[in-house]
Fold each of these.
Amino acid sequence: MQADSSLPIGQRIKKHRERIGMSQPVLGGLIGKSKEWVKAVENGRLKEPKLPVLVQIAQALGLRDLADLTGDGYAVSVSMFAGERHAALGLVQEALTEFRLTPPDHQTSVGHLAERLRTAWDVRHRSPDHRTQLGILLPDLLRDAQAAARARGDDRRTARKILAGTYQLADFYLAYQPSPELVWLVADRGMSEGIESDDPYVIACSAWAMVQALRDAGRWDEAISLARDAADRIVPYIERDSTADDWRGIVGALEAEIAYVHARTGRHGEAWAAWERADRYADRLGPAYRHVQTSFSRPVMQAHAVTLGVELQRPGEALAAANKFDADEIVSVPRRARHMIEVARAHAERKQSTAVLALLDKSERTASETIRYNGFAKSMIRELQARPPSGMREDVADLARRVGVAA
């Protein structure tokens, strides 16, 4: 048998799976894959999983170090990519998983719930510490929205729409934390509530969140199929004068997600074709438009172009897209900080460490709770720690302390 240091990733997965007595169907179920997929990866018939799926596998197998799977000898904590546990995660989880069979003593009106949800979305987009702020708001909002949706009455359909929106908001809080089961839970519940509301727009918004969950699990074809289906169901409405702009906005956001998935799988032509379809919606909606849930807008379409260039490993295209607009035009503070990380990734592909450091520092100062939960950013910081730009070792150390990356 090969020495352990030379085992391919598939065989390493098999070794650790068998060590803990886990079957192929169980591992597949934990990461959203089939038994056949696991078997094909382990025996080398499928190419090695990409980073997001490797992180899921490592979590499912109880591994703390990605080097246990990659075998490269360079210790990389799983938590660096899976994210750290936010202080309020337990409270949000409790609100999601407790079931009250007895109706509450009082019921919040759907009008009041709708206003609380609108305020929570506003807080999410304008706060640099958006996870902390959502951690305060979400537990009670989830409980009240769930109670309203279960109650009988004329407002139940509206309550279901609000609950679907609350699950969509919770998805942003839970993303990149070590709780993948909760991400799937809110995505699935959001889809269910959207379908029960019988509102094509709410269904499309819930589908957008589910597409992201499927994408990050490496279920590319399912993600594209769902996004395409949800968008196609909205398209017949968008030429009507009475249709709200947000219906067009969610179609554009779904097309942008299709572009992202294609880029993740290296399909250059398909990625840019989907981006162009999304961009046409952004042009139609104009420079002042922004979709609250997805941040779909003219400037964010340029940010998407940066990400496509990075994912397709064409940093020149990514940096050209970044230079076409001012990042300050991105209204959502967390989304703006994420864009800076994406531009830093493009510079990292070109080994331009000074630019990487400057952009990551700017991202942290823009929204500290975005970079703390971004695995790509933490990986780049570790690279900077290993090879800091000339004369900037202390600057790198300061950024690493602020982000929570150990030396």
Amino acid sequence: MKIGFAGLGVMGGPMARHLVQAGHEVTGFNRSPDKARAWSEITGGLFAGTVAEAAGGAELLILCVGNDDDVRQVVGEALPHLAEGAVIVDHTTTSARVAREMADSASACGRAFIDAPVSGGQAGAENGQLSVMAGGDAAALVRVEPVLMAYSKAVKHMGPSGAGQLTKMVNQIAIAGVVQGLAEAVHFAAVAGLDTDAAYDAISKGAAQSWQMDNRWKTMAAGRFDFGFAVDWMRKDLGLVLDEARANGAHLSLTALVDQFYSEVQSMGGSRWDTSSLAARLQDRAPKA
């Protein structure tokens, strides 16, 4: 398939690489041209200096950009240049509102727009093991799902436009609560004088087990946070969640509290630390020897 790909960062770069490796003709665009050129040289994909060039004649345009405004800009620039009947798949985490706006704009031009945020982080993108939650035209998703499986382990259609983004919000709500609980558990174990590795071994095969525990317990205990999904990105996502909750009346007291805890981590200089750095604000409060 002829594919345009906009956004070649830590997530988009490896996702687009998987598409090249699967045999698709992929033209990559990034706001930083040097990053797009480097991606092209490494992967064998084609370089585009503009969104219009990346979208030119493409049957599928994939986005992995920053926020609502970025999506609006890229889709607006791309729509006139896409092939007739093309599908736009947006992997950016955005508001459900902008997903519905873009779906209407695409439909008016004879194209389809699918909001398709992902879960799995940078490691999932690198290893082709992302989970995709999609909203929008079900028939359009069926057409492109085999392509998306180049970097995914699962693609789930959740309903009409915006449903993918709402599902990603559910994902982020669940993660926020789990990570805070895990941070407090690690903190308590350390303050209580337990061997944190032994505590992990004792509880990680029982009811407390989670992906976050298996992948973040030991780095939390070691005070290592210089990797993974950045606090700035999580606060952006939680901001979308809390905006949606204010609109639909959902009660998210814990999510709002954890968002404030992340603001404390930012004030500690942890804007680019992994989300597990909730543990850092507790370690900072630990009694000194």
Amino acid sequence: MKVIDETQTVVIGAGAVGTAIAYFLARRGADVVLVDRGPVCGETSAATVALVWVQSKAPAHYTRLSLLSSNLYAAISPELDEDVEFRRPGGIQLALNDQEVEVLVRRAEVQNQVEGLNVQILDGDAVRRVEPAVGPDVVGGSYCPWDGHVHSLAYVHALARGARRRGARIRTFTAVTDILRDGGGAASGVVTSAGVIRTRNVVDAAGVSSGLIAHMVGVKVPIVPCRGEVVVSEPLPPLVSRPLHLIRQSPTTGIFLFGETHAFTGLDRTSTPQAIRHNAQRAIKLIPALRHAQALRVFVGLRPWPPDGLPFLGPVPRVPGFYVAVGHSGITLSPGYGKIVSDLILDGRTDVDLSPYDPCRYEDRDEVTIKAGTHAVTIPMKGPRWPEVLVEKPAAA
């Protein structure tokens, strides 16, 4: 097969994570090629509420990683060539009953072990003093000053343009079909639908397809698609000044985005009346003024979901030059991934402890159970059909 390019690093996946990694590499002068089987921001990163959310990320090491990423948003957003609507006014996660408040209290106790985080528990009246549009059914909430939101489409495309301006080459509609290795087992190239790209480093940032990419070098990464459905409202006058977990208002257009659903249905992106109804009913309880708003559209995203809720992030020692960067909070964590992976490739080290995110931490299991919300699935880790089970509708646990 013909050689179409040669580079220091190939990043697979042009969503938020992959474009951030390419951007951080190119920002430091590295030679990088970003490839994707579709367009830039063509899948999950385009179908999200797009929060930059630090609270709810536990245990403490995961909170630190999310806080690092939130701070990196503040650092890189001014470098981009457009306003990507990154705003960090702090965020409130709302509770509709005492049980939900108790969950927030327990989580805040863990997260406040992280220096400087300062998650505060508010009662319902305190929430309404800062956000008067919040309804009377809300009994409390947790406030984190480091939470915010972003326009995900603008953000990912601005990262891609920024990487290109710094010399990165972006090959869209170019599917990766294999990864080449040299005699010592190290990554040496990527086979694509357009030809071979020679390289010393390969970064698997392919989202829900990351397990299929990892399988090309014999690594088992149990990531499955978790379907989430988001409702988009008509533009409304300003009602809230900050994101309220899975409901937010765009600071520029006035539209609301809200969604809180989980389903393991393989690659099925079909919207369901049940999920739309669930999202709308909860949103109206939180913000009663939404009762009379028109829904413009519904979109479905497939989040890459790990068994323990933690990312797969870091190098694979037995395949020198191969790195994995995937998890279900790609928008929040993408700048953190970008810095960490670029530091690993260019400096051979990172200041972040990556041991909790070891890409190979499940390889010795016979099966894993993956949970999201009230849903759970069990997938086999062994057998002739691995890794196809990762993208199929698995059996319920």
Amino acid sequence: MLPKTKIIASTLSFRLSLRVIAALAVLLMVALLIMFYYSRKAVREEARQKAEQTLEMTVQRIDNILLDIEQATGNVYWKVTAHINEPDMLRKYARMLVEENEHITACTVALEPGFYDGAKQDFYAFYVRKDSTHVVARKLPSKKPYHKQSWYVHAMETGLPSWTDALTVSTPGFEPIISFCLPLYQGERKVGVLATDVALSLLSKIVQEVKATPNSFSTLLGKDGSVIVFPDSTVLSMDAIPLAKEEHNVLLEETVQAMVAGETGHKQVSLEGVDYYAFYKPFVCAPVLGRSPMDLGWSVCVALPEDDILSSDRQLNYTVLLIAVIGLLLMLLLCRWFIHHQLLPLRMLSRSAQRIAEGHYDESIPISPHQDEVGRLQNHFKQMQQSLAIRMEEMNHLSETLQERGEVLQATYKQAQAASNMKTNFLYNMSNQMVSPVKTIFDDVMMLSSNYDVMTDEEATQLTDEVELNGNRITAMLNQLIVDSQIDKAIEQ
């Protein structure tokens, strides 16, 4: 058996402490599991609420940018309309619009073909672009028929303000954009379109500044599925549905399709090996006084990494587990100390029992002032020790008495044995002394019986006297034996 195992096996306080801690650990683990379950549920609910708040903030942030651009464009719109026949003034107002608004990257004024010169094959259009250091204005080349492009056609057909989905500009140095288009009127006739552009990278940068968690991100899809806002600028203006299919991710594809369909909800998706909770809803422009109602058909999404959502919960769990382990260790030490202190009388009784087993019956055991089981056991043990000491004292006294009586008996036995030996010797001597007279009597009687006829009277008388003499000797010896026997009997009594 290992030393540690021996210590555990031989120490009652340690074993009791371990059992108490084991029971507490089981109860604590059950409580922690229940707490972890409900804390995980609460964290997910908190993450859902935070995602919804972030989603709403993202919508508001995007809408604020759009509204800022709409108002800035609307402020210039009336001046452009008033000077529709003055190209220089149009460029001036367009430049002013780009310079004074940080969100606008370019402004385009496109008029109907032949608006100035009456030539139906040509149209007048120019754009003002914000470069890295200054604003430049250029006339759009006539080889690009802007009057046939979607943003121009849609504005001219509806005659209403509108936002385009993501557009890819083929001109080198131009980023993907979205455009706010306002149809230009001359009287009741639509004569062109005023379009302000916002770079998708700029819009994405502004939107991504709003984060629910450190690694979360937002995305905005157009009604045609084009990517308007995304952290990776390389996918801006690209179609999100083919991109999702390329990932071979069914949940991601379903999420994109649900966003394009204008649904509200959330799904768990995986991107590049990272699990996200994606919360999405349709993008709705806030109703503002003087703002034209627009149904853009866009959908906004906020994706929160599962690790970000559960990181605080995991940290809390680790902290709780650490506190639980430290608490159990402290509880073990306290239980060990408390039980060790409570079992001190038992250890004292154990040592006393060992001393008593070794023959020290006068072992001193104090009276316990406690009335619990251990205290009563100590007091009863003291009573037992006292009773055992009295019994052992009586047994010692009895043993001494028996020993004294044994010595007396042994001495008496020796005396009796000596007397017996004396009797034996006496009888032996008596027997030896009686043999000769008896033999003489026998010989004389045999001689008388065999020679009586031929024997004289004197010879017969002589033989008779010898028989009588020997008979008297034998009688005297027997009388002496009887007297000695009576004396011995009297001594024994």
